[in-house]
Specification:
Helix content: over 70%
Number of strands: 0
Largest sheet: none
Number of helices: 3
Shape: rod-shaped
Distance between the termini: 115 Å
Radius of gyration: 33 Å
Amino acid sequence: MKTKYFIAAVILLFAVSVFNGCETKNENIEDAKQNVKDAKQELKDAHAQYEREWQQFKSDVELKIRNNDKKIAEFKQAPRKFRTQYEKEVLVLEQKNIELRKKLAEYRYEGKDSWETFKDGFNREVDVVITGLNDIFSKKN
């Protein structure tokens, strides 16, 4: 009789531990599902943030490039003596401006670090063209 109770108690303990183990596994599965859901949302948020930043950057840079084009067109209407003196420099700056437009159109996002590197380098290149054109036009007067 004691053996029956002992066997029943062992079976009951075994069943309780299996049941608790299953419950813990279900909680782990639910936690994992929630973590995946959170990670997906963070990825969507990060992508949306990048898209907003990219659109702002792109519109700002396109405006600067268009302003450079206007200055180059203005240079082409300047007096002949002035044009002859600075024509080579302006042609180089015009080519850089064209390359910047192409580089902007071809850019593809490859991660936050490469985006930051691209953005910083691109801004420096745009500033070089702007400064060069401003320097030339400051000599016009």
